[in-house]
Amino acid sequence: WDDGQYPPEKSDHPVADVSWYDAQAYCQWLSKKTGKNYRLPSEAEWEKAARSDDGRIYPWGDDFDPAKANTEEAKIGDTSPVGQFSPQGDSPNGCVDLAGNVWEWCADWFDENEYKNRKIVVKDPSGPPKGSSRVLRGGSFSDNRNYARSANRDRGYPDLSYGLNGF
Questions:
Q1: How far apart are CA 132 and CA 150, in angstroms?
Q2: DSSP state of 74
Q3: What pLDDT digit, counting tens, does each position of 50-72 carry?
Q4: What's the half-sphere exposure (Cβ side, CA atoms, 13 Å) at 57?
Q5: Which residues is 165 bridged to in the sheet?
Q6: Strand extents, DSSP E, the chain
Q7: Contact 97, 133 (CB under 8 A)
Q8: From CA 159, how far away is CA 163, in angstroms rounded?
Q9: Where are the alpha helices (DSSP H) in the chain?
Q10: How confident is the model at residue 120 (pLDDT cuts 50, 70, 90)?
């Protein structure tokens, strides 16, 4: 951004190149401004929004389609307007852009073995109580369809901004 202003042509794009702390600060600012509670989703909430009740591979179903998400296969090469792939790329829950565009920060700390270590099925599990990196989900415009799978997980250091991470 130049002088704290986003480029006008990006006004309807996802926020990108922000740290986890930046995303948290935005949620706090918006909560204060509107009087409503805004926060980053937990990893479990994000995955439920993307996979729905049937455990689908992509938000729209089990077969990849480059016309339904801004991934490497779409050949856009940059962020795209939020909702550009809606409704065809939406999840059954009505969520948009959960595959591609930008990696989305989640509230939880990342633990590579989080699912392997869980001994029982837990409804709406919380992530580990501490860690060094935070959960990222959804893949980005520069990642291929494997990264856009709804079950794919990644991590990022919460204090680092990276052009593909956002909300």
A1: 23
A2: G
A3: 999 999 999 999 999 999 999 99
A4: 8
A5: 103
A6: 103-109, 134-137, 154-156, 165-166
A7: no
A8: 13
A9: 20-34, 43-51, 114-117
A10: low
